[in-house]
Amino acid sequence: MSAVATTARSLTVVQLIPSMHAGGAERSALEIARALVQAGHRSVVISAGGRLVEQLLAEGSEHVTLDIGKKSISTLGRLHALRRVLRQLRPDIVHARSRLPAWMGWWAMKGLQPRPHFVTTVHGLNSPGRYSAILLRGERIVAVSQTLRDYVLSHYRWLEPGRVRVIPRGIDPIAFPYGHRPDDAWTRAFLAQYPQLAGAPILTLPGRGTRLKGHHDGVNLIADLRRRGIDARLLLLGVIEPGREAYAEELRVLIRSLDLERHVVMTSARNDVRDIYAISALVLQLSNKPESFGRTVVEALSLCRPVLGYAHGGVGELLAELYPAGRVPPGDRERLVERAAELLRVAPAIPMLHNYRLSDMQQATLALYDEVMAER
Fold first, then answer.
1. Using 50, 70 and 90 to split pLDDT, how confident is the model at 180?
2. On the chain, which terminus has fewer CB atoms closer than 10 Å, C or N?
3. pLDDT, tens digit, for every residue of 118-174?
4. 253 in Cβ contact with 277 (< 8 Å)
5. HSE-CB for 135 with a 13 A CA cutoff
6. Exposed e or buried b for every residue in 338-360, given b needs 16+ CB within 10 A?
7. Are the beta carbons of 82 and 108 closer than 8 angstroms?
8. Do the domain assignments include residue 5?
């Protein structure tokens, strides 16, 4: 579904982000870029590049390759290049989606005439302090959940509440259709690639290769289920990443120590997550620190697949609203295995989602741009 803007004239909107590889912030940048193009605006993303750039360009946006997100003193040397690019582009709005790119954009806009409007998105529960506070200098600040809005307002008492708007991430119900089942050919090919997953309920834990995603808890959950006589398999989807080899080996050691080599599969990021979720008995969200949102919760529930997750942060907020049966206290190993066993036996019905749609997020963001432009 296309987003619709009400601005009478065409805008140039530049989004600043460290890279365009994968992740919630990157996908949001891609989705807003698409909405801008569909609404007749000029969309530019400035980043160090990544695998999503090809799709960004194919959908009509422009990309400027400039590493403005690497936490290194050398990044400051690119400030003049960024200012030069912005002077050439003459953007109406600069939208920063990460802290260091936001600082770079803030400094680069100094002296630009006319000065672009500055919009920011807070995507995570960043440590409070001066470095993080740059994301609260936007004329409008997007928070991706009510949890995140409450968090920034509680830590930055000087922040005007009216500037902070909750615009949750959204998913495309066409991309994640209710009740979807993959075709037999895909299922056969997938299980042939990962034969360990065949013949038992699959629990899928999506998440990049970082300890924060709770992979250890997922592995221990499978061990605990097996001790109860419940056969289940675990798919750690997206855990294998370049530069995270030591963490992946740490997980392999844990898996071997629990004699689970035939019950746990680790993969790199894949493009067929919809089909993977659709054949999963449970989708897990076990981040050991509160997250700002929880897109995988919405994706899985949109497909009519049950979700089991820790009841904190944005994930807890979503589960409380959309699937209360899937909530467990963070880190409670006993409650986690009990609830998993219950959901594997009989999962409560999942109603069709009527909110958290991609089009809602796109339209709300473009409306925010309209609001900012109207103030000049």
1. very high
2. C
3. 999 999 889 999 999 999 999 999 999 999 999 999 999 999 999 999 999 998 999
4. no
5. 28
6. ebbeebbeebeebeebeebbbbb
7. yes
8. no
Report whether 167 contacts 364 (CB < 8 A).
yes
What single-letter DSSP state applies at residue 353? Answer: P
Domain containing residue 196: CATH number: 3.40.50.2000
Going by C-beta distance under 8 Å and a sequence separation of 6 or more, which residues neighbour residue 101?
16, 17, 18, 46, 47, 68, 69
Print the domain residue range for 189. Answer: 184-345
**pLDDT score recorded for residue 6:** 47
Same domain, 81 and 41: yes
Residues 40 and 137 occupy one common structural domain: yes
CB 258 within 8 A of CB 227: no
Half-sphere exposure of 254 (CA within 13 A, CB side): 18
Q: How many domains does the chain contain in total? A: 2
Q: Is 165 helix (H, G, I), strand (E, B) or coil?
A: strand
Per-residue model confidence as pLDDT tens digits over 310-366: 999 889 999 999 999 999 999 999 999 999 999 999 999 999 988 899 999 999 999
* pLDDT tens digits for range 90-133: 999 999 999 999 999 999 999 899 999 999 999 988 999 999 99
Distance CA 266, CA 241 (A): 11
In a domain, 2, yes or no: no
